[in-house]
Amino acid sequence: MAQPEFSSLIPIIITLTLSLSTRNVVIGLFGGVFSGVVMLNGFSLLDNFGVMVKGHLVPQLTDSYNAGVIVLLVFIGGFVALMEQSGGGYAFAKKVTHWVSTKCRAQISSWLGGIFIFFSDLGTPLIVGPVFRPLFDKLSLSRQKLAFIIDSTASPVAILIPFIGWGVYIMGLLQKEFTALQLEVTDWDAFIQAIPFQFYAFLAIGIVPLVAIKKLDFGPMAVAEANAKAGIQTGASTETLKPFTHKNAKASFVFAPLIVMASVLLIMLVPLGFPFQKVSGSVFRAALSSAYFFAAMTVIILMAYYGVRKWQDGISVYLKGMSNMMQVAVVLILAWTLSSIGKELGAAAYIAEQAQAGFPYWLVPAVAFLLSAIISFATGSSWGTFAIMMPLVIPTAVAIDAPLFACIGAVLSGGLFGDHCSPISETTILSSTGSGCDQFEHFKTQLPYALLNGGIALACFIIAGVFANPLVLGIALISQLVFVYVLAKWHQHHTELSHTTTQPELTSDNA
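^ thats the sequence. predicted structure below, dont judge the formating
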């Protein structure tokens, strides 16, 4: 391994520069990997490309852990595509609307629909948006509010679940660092223990019922709601998503495969002592891959039985969904490779050395949160942000004894926060499209809520850096309740005051 020097950070700097300038994380990671190979082997374009493929990319693919993660992601991709294209999610969401008769119920039911459709952050706008859009229009709720609810239950829910694509991807990044640092903790344990420190995800989910039940709208959202109440949909857009629907599709298309998935997992893992005894990662990934496969077959059989899709069509959808995971696999492989090259150059050791020279350990989570938020906001990609930040933050946390799980939660929360604030984020675009709302209107009305939650999360990461206690999450949620209530009261008072100042003029004119 090379001696720790500032030059070891060049691949990381190139990765960040290219990612931010092109807004494409794959280009950034590729540039960082290739520059690292050049630094290790000297400049020769063709030779270095061959060395990069043979000596760096291929070993990442042939690593048993990495291969298991990629295979599992492929199975998840096929299952998610089937769930989105079966019509079951639409049938389920449609069923929920039967008991909806008030504005509050409409918001809560769309929120619950977004939470239940947890298997795909991109599937939530596709399914929940088109179902609830006519209902929101009918009840004089703004489409901006629907887009906000969808965005608050897409990525924030998905990032908390370890056995879907988000969790598998994140654990893949974690394990790479743990192996290099020879840490005893497993990727599963780290993910689970970091969940209470994912402050922003909980705040994003928690703010929706708070706003719905207490009618605590503020900022541009309050204006949008007032306009909708007056019968004016200021944020309406003609560009909307049309989910797959079929008259024979059943809500059981959602329930049945999830029951099968849980059953397969239990049958395969309980005899090994799960969840009370540790199960090896390879065994767990094999069980999870099997569970997703049999769940997918359940969807295909149900669609064929009810005449929604022929079984050949179901298999085609499944295979297409598998191929859709290719870009995720590419990002993972490049991220693993960049991390490996960085360690050969001594990047992690250099960062750790600089941190030890005087950087306070308790500040690491807050700084990780801010940097992750900036990168995610600029690129519109939370996944790409995780790939860039995990190899930097984890070695630093270990080197200066910063709270590891709080630091991991900070990277995840920061990536999610930046993604929520970014107008170019995929979930921002899909949430606005699915709800039939103008993209900028959604960005503008959601931003105050995102900034409020981000500010609370930042303060809590400073506290967590000192105490590293999961109970800090309680402080975050209580703070959110207080801040939202105060802001809504202030907005209400400001509105009443403006009406009062204009009222005398109206009275005088009438007199």
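The two ends are 88 Å apart (CA to CA).
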